[in-house]
Design goal:
By secondary structure, the protein is mainly alpha-helical. 71% of the residues lie in helices and 1% in strands. It has 42 helices and two strands. The chain has a two-stranded antiparallel sheet. The protein starts with 19 loop residues before the first helix and ends in a 6-residue tail after the last helix. The relative contact order is 0.04.
Length: 722
């Protein structure tokens, strides 16, 4: 057979695009520089692109061509200019020592040569030192110098740095100027690294420990230093460096953390429990137990909390964080669980400064405990303080974790858009710091927000992404939340059998697929869907357990939702009394979205009893709330009920404000017009200021006004108010 003259062309397939997680980490590694990112992407291996292997962490491996170009630009400058730029670059990494000007003075250097750098657009001299054009130019200015010149620059900086607060950075520059291994310098660096950790500087601590390992002649001590450096890198939000360092030594505790945040959470629990048992110091064991509790939360295997509690008892350690409360809840002892969770939530320092020893991690646990108790103001306070403490301590990993749970508090109090914004910021931070499991949790939260705001396509996309990752990593919490989001979407669009089926499946899902806490939170929605489909047997059992928890924790919102469930499960007039009880309880709570849904269900019951006037008032109030929350499907249900009453969905046209307002709104409006503040009105009516704010928003919307001044004028001119 003759050989073809022109062989068929070989088609080269383009590599798959980077995942959102890998893209975020890469941007962080290249200092958000698009030139470096464009060069780095083609250099990644298939496993790195897929997120299976850590990314390169050295600049020379990420963007060598960019560095070569910048180094040539630096080397074209005069020698004196390059020396000043080298000194400034050495002074700014890994953490600025602010010793440049003192070093210049000590060496009697002339700063005028920096003018050449300014003319070339490379850097600019200021009263505080040298400002480089960008991070990569600073790296090039350092790498363009010879090793001997770099050591000389570091030694000069070390000479002008003193003791006290500067001793840690002096140690760094002394070590960077060393020629070879030194047991004495390694010991000094280890001490300085410990001091940097105490003062909340994990990035500097990691650099010190890593340099100490390079200078240490003892292999066993070198391994311990590398393990510490890996942990520091993780806390500083440098996951790829943490993975690289961890691969060079045995780090059981860190291995557990990495599995918890980006691997299989069930395996993480086992690893962390083993690390706690092997811990050489009580603080190390307590930290591992705290993280093991978090692993149990993510997996949904709350039964294993008993193992962690048993180990804490054997090690004579107080069970940390939410571990005691969750253990009691998992064992069905709701009264004890409520008391223990209240104790944990109290560490948020809602009414005062946080308690001594309240680390960012324990503040986060306080927030989770408050969420379980239905105390959303305390949950918001604890998670905000956890995020602030994490920022102050240079630990962005915990800041991202705090945002995971902060979004719940915002969401339940009706601040859906604020919750969505916090979730998106948390998602960005979680991906950038290598916390793919936390990002999965936030994706599930975004699915719920999309369900509420009527974005069906977004809800399904977020839920699918969250469930895919969650089921692969054994993450019951986000898997259950994503399933609940889809069920809520079904519920608010009238697909009641589908909603009931999803929530029934959620109730039967085990660890890694479902979650007891989410099943519990979703109970009111399950009862509603089950009643709509005529299947109340299981709904009654679910409500009984929910009611027992609500009574144990005493949350007004949980008690309100339990009363709502009871109303759904009884007929006629009796149901209305339970709805009224629920609305009275909601007035003392914070879950504004659920309060509006209770009003909607109450109005529907009133309409069936032909109590049209009261039903209409309830529906207008619910509709205003849904519109303010941006919940179109819920609003559509309210409008459908109004149509069933033969009433327009908009407020009735009238010049008399009394015809436009509900009785409660009228009372609040009169008091506001008289000059009372929201707090004063709340005290008089025995309601919360949040409830008064909700009523006033409704008053303004119905009357078409924007201020209290307009309200005063309108009421003064009305004959129907007094």
């Amino acid at each position: 057979m003759a050989t073809p003259v022109n062989p068929p062309p070989q088609h080269r397939t383009s590599p798959p695009p980077l995942s959102e997680a890998v893209h975020a980490r890469l941007l962080r590694l290249v200092y958000d520089d698009p030139r470096a990112a464009a060069e780095a992407v083609p250099r990644l291996t298939p496993r790195q692109r897929a997120g299976l292997d850590p990314l390169p962490v050295e600049p020379a491996l990420l963007a060598p061509q960019l560095l070569r170009t910048l180094r040539r630009e630096i080397r074209a400058l005069p020698d004196d200019t390059r020396r000043l730029l080298l000194l400034a670059a050495a002074d700014q990494h890994p953490v600025a020592a602010h010793a440049y000007l003192r070093a210049v003075a000590a060496a009697r250097l002339d700063t005028r040569p920096t003018e050449a750098a300014e003319a070339a657009g490379v850097a600019q001299g200021t009263a505080g030192g040298v400002v480089f054009r960008d991070a990569w130019t600073r790296i090039a200015a350092y790498e363009a110098a010879s090793p001997a010149d770099r050591r000389e620059a570091h030694r000069l900086l070390a000479r002008v740095l003193g003791g006290g607060s500067e001793s840690v950075r002096r140690s760094w520059h002394r070590a960077a100027g060393a020629l070879g291994p030194s047991r004495r310098l390694a010991a000094e660096l280890r001490t300085s690294a410990d001091r940097a950790r105490v003062t909340g500087q994990p990035a500097l601590a990691g650099a010190l420990a890593e340099r100490a390992a390079a200078l240490c002649p003892d292999p066993r001590e070198q391994a311990r230093l590398l393990a510490g450096a890996a942990t520091d890198a993780w806390h500083a939000g440098r996951p790829d460096r943490a993975h690289h360092l961890a691969s060079r030594t045995d780090t059981p505790a860190l291995d557990g953390v990495l599995a918890l945040r980006a691997g299989n959470a069930a395996e993480a629990f086992d690893t962390l429990l083993a690390a706690a048992a092997a811990g050489k110091r009580p603080a190390e064991s307590a930290e591992s137990l705290t993280l093991a509790a978090e692993a149990a939360v993510y997996t949904g295997d709350l039964r294993r909390l008993h193992e962690a509690s048993t180990l804490a008892h054997r090690l004579a350690l107080p069970a940390p964080g939410i571990l005691p409360g969750l253990t009691a809840a998992a064992e069905g002892d709701y009264e004890t669980a409520g008391a223990l969770l209240r104790e944990t939530a109290g560490r948020s320092g809602l009414d005062a400064e946080p308690a001594v020893g309240s680390t960012p991690a324990l503040l986060l646990h306080a927030g989770i405990a408050a969420l379980m108790l239905g105390d959303h103001p305390r949950a918001a306070t604890a998670t905000l303080r956890a995020a602030a403490a994490a920022r102050a301590g240079g630990t962005p990993v915990i800041e991202a974790q705090a945002l995971e749970f902060r979004v719940y508090a915002d969401f339940w109090t009706g601040r859906t858009r604020a919750a969505e914004a916090a979730a998106r910021e948390g998602l960005r931070q979680a991906y950038a710091t290598g916390q793919d499991n936390g990002a999965c949790h936030l994706r599930a939260a975004l699915a719920m927000f999309a369900a509420v705001t009527g974005e069906e396509e977004g809800c399904r996309a977020h839920a699918a992404a969250a469930r895919s990752h969650a089921l692969a990593r054994g993450l019951g919490l986000p898997a259950a939340l994503a399933q609940w989001a889809l069920a809520f979407l079904d519920l608010t669009t009238g697909r009641f059998p589908a909603a009931a089926a999803r929530l029934r499946a959620l109730a039967g899902s085990g660890p890694g697929h479902g979650h007891r806490a989410i099943r519990h939170l979703a109970t009111p929605h399950y009862v509603e869907a089950a009643v709509r489909t005529g299947d109340t047997r299981v709904a009654r059992a679910a409500h009984a357990d929910y009611d027992r928890w609500a009574r144990a924790v005493g949350s007004p919102d949980d008690l309100a939702l339990s009363a709502r469930c009871r109303a759904l499960l009884v007929p006629g007039t009796e149901a209305v009394e339970h709805y009224r009880t629920a609305l009275d309880l909601h007035a003392r709570g914070t879950r504004d979205l659920e309060r509006a849904r209770t009003e909607l269900l109450c109005a529907s019951a009133l309409r069936r009893l032909r109590r049209r006037a009261e039903a209409r008032d309830r529906l207008h109030s619910a509709l205003e709330a849904f519109d303010s929350f941006g919940a179109p499907h819920c609003a559509a249900q309210a409008r459908a009920e109004l149509r069933a009453l033969g009433t327009p969905a908009s407020a009735p046209a009238a010049t008399d404000p009394a015809a436009l307002l509900t009785a409660q709104q009228l009372t609040v409006a009169r008091m506001a017009a008289e000059g009372a503040t929201n707090r004063e009105i709340a005290d008089r009516l025995a309601l919360s200021p949040r409830t008064i704010d909700h009523h006033l928003r409704g008053v303004f919307a119905r009357l078409g006004i924007r201020s209290r001044i307009e309200l005063v004028r309108l009421l003064d001119g009305s004959t129907g108010i007094d």
